[in-house]
Amino acid sequence: PSAAGRVPNPAVVSAWALSRRVLITGASGFVGRHLVLACPQAGDEVTGLARGDTDLDVDLRDAAATAAAVRRLRPDVVYHLAALSSVGRSWEDPRRTLSENTASTLNVLEAVRSEAPDASVLVAGSGEVYGPPAALPVDENAALRPQSPYAVAKAAADLLAGLYADAHGLRIVRARAFNHAGPGQSDTFLVGSLTRQAAEGLRAGKDPIRIVTGNPDTRRDFTDVRDVVRAYRALAATAEPGVYNVCSGRTASAGEIVGLVGGALGGRATVEHAIDPARVRAHEVMEIRGAHERVTAATGWEPEIPLERTVADALAGWESALGGGGTALGGT
C-alpha cells in the first residue's frame, strides 16, 4: 500500500520493470556513486549530471544549461542529489550553501517542468530540516525547525519541490534522509572520519590507534548508504508524491561507533578513544531518531544492513583508498 493506504498503480509498477532513462544529479557524490552502480544492475540507462568527472559536466546553477541537459536526455526518472552537504562547512560559508543548493534545485525543477513533465522525480532532502525534536521518533508531520545554513537550504529545496508538485502536477517524492554512512564517504562526516583515522593508524603501524571525536554521547539515526539507495529507487518507482523519511529508526552514539571501529579492526590493533573539546558543538542536539513507517507502508522498504557492517565496509574503503587493501565501495 501507499502512504495514503492505496495500492501502487500496477501500470506504474509494470513500466518500472522496463529499462528507464535515469538522470542523477550529484552523481559524483557519496550517495550518487552508489546509485550510479545500482541503477544499471536493474536495467536502467543512467546518465550522471554534475560538475567534474561524470557523464555530463553541467553546472546546475546555470538554468539554461540544466534545461538543455534535461531536454537532451528526456529522462523517465530524475534523482536530484546534488548539494553542498556538510553542516559544518555551511557555517563557514552560509551564503554559498544557501544560494547554490536552492538555485540548483529550482533549476532542476524548472527543467523538469518544461522539458520532462512526465518524469518521476526524487528530491533528496535531509532529516536536518526538523531540527531539535519535540518528540522521538520524528515523523513526517513534525514541524521544520532547521538549525544550520545547510538545513535551511534543504528545507527551502524541500518546500520548492512541494510547490512544484502542487502547482504543476509533477510527480515529485521528497525523501528526507537522516544520517547515512558507508564505504566511500568523506571524512567530513562522523563514520567517514572515524574509519579514516583507523585506516591511517593501521597503515602507520600504530597500536593502539588514537581515534578522536567530539561529544561521545550524541546519538544519531544511521542508515547504510546502500539501504538509502534502495529506498530512493523504491520511492521513485511506486510511492505517491509526498514526503518520506529515510532512516533506520535506531540510534548509536559517537562513542559506540568508536567501539564498532575497534571491532572492525579484527584484532589488528586496539583503539584509544580521545575527545577533542574543539569538536564539541555548543548547541548540540543529543539524540535524533526518525520514523520510517511511511516509506515502509508505501514501498515495503526496510533497512537491512547492520551498522556493524556499515562501519566495517567504510573502514575497508578507506584502507583501499589509502593503499592498504580492501574494496573502495564495499560489498552489496
List the topology elements.
Elements: H1 10-16, E1 21-25, H2 30-41, E2 45-50, E3 56-57, H3 63-73, E4 77-80, H4 87-92, H5 94-115, E5 120-126, H6 149-168, E6 171-177, E7 180-181, H7 190-203, E8 209-213, E9 219-221, E10 223-224, H8 225-238, E11 242-246, E12 251-253, H9 254-264, E13 271-275, H10 293-299, H11 307-321
Parallel strand pairs: 1-2, 1-4, 2-3, 4-5, 5-6, 6-11, 7-10, 8-13
Antiparallel strand pairs: 9-12
Properties at a glance:
single chain, 332 residues, alpha/beta, seven-stranded parallel sheet, two-stranded parallel ribbon, 13 strands, 42% helix, 17% strand
Structure explained in plain terms:
The chain is an alpha/beta fold and 332 residues long. The chain has eleven helices and 13 strands. The chain has helices at 10-16, 30-41, 63-73, 87-92, 94-115, 149-168, 190-203, 225-238, 254-264, 293-299, 307-321; strands spanning 21-25, 45-50, 56-57, 77-80, 120-126, 171-177, 180-181, 209-213, 219-221, 223-224, 242-246, 251-253, 271-275. The strands form four sheets. A seven-stranded parallel sheet has the order 3-2-1-4-5-6-11, sandwiched between helices. α2 packs across α8 (225-238) and α7 (190-203) packs parallel to α9. It is globular and about 60 Å long. It starts with 9 loop residues before the first helix and ends in an 11-residue tail after the last helix. Mean pLDDT is 91; it is low at 1-16.
